[in-house]
Write a structure and sequence with these properties.
With 101 residues, the protein is mainly β. It has strands spanning 4-9, 18-23, 26-33, 36-41, 55-57, 60-62, 69-71, 87-88, 90-93, 96-100. The protein binds FE2/S2 (inorganic) cluster (FES).
């Protein structure tokens, strides 16, 4: 069981956006999928692209390097069924976004 760490506030992450945060040496991609905040590892399992810098639409992040797509709530890759990205639990407490690490 990990510990929840504050990584951002809701004003940093408007609905429909993604960003990258560094938490205790880990690079994590944060998403606001139309009001649902979730998090995955930042590293795309294809070739290591930064998912937090991708385009988020309808709960799907598109990797900025080669366009592979992942469901941000499950980490499932929609482009190659053999791939998935690890998820982190995320929650909102007031204005704060916390991620389990
Ligand atoms: S590194 Fe993400 S699609 Fe290639």
């Amino acid at each position: 069981m990990g510990e929840y760490v504050k990584v951002a506030t809701l004003s940093d992450l408007p609905p429909g956006t993604a960003r990258t945060v560094e938490v205790r040496g880990a690079s994590i991609a944060l998403y606001n999928a139309d009001g649902v905040v979730c998090a995955t590892a930042n590293t795309c399992p294809h070739r290591g692209g930064p998912l937090g810098e991708g385009e988020l639409a309808a709960g799907v992040i598109t990797c900025p390097w080669h366009g592979f797509q992942y469901e941000v709530r499950t980490g499932k890759c929609l482009t190659n069924a053999a791939l998935s990205v690890g998820c982190h639990r995320a929650r909102v407490d007031g204005q704060d976004i916390l991620v389990e690490v």
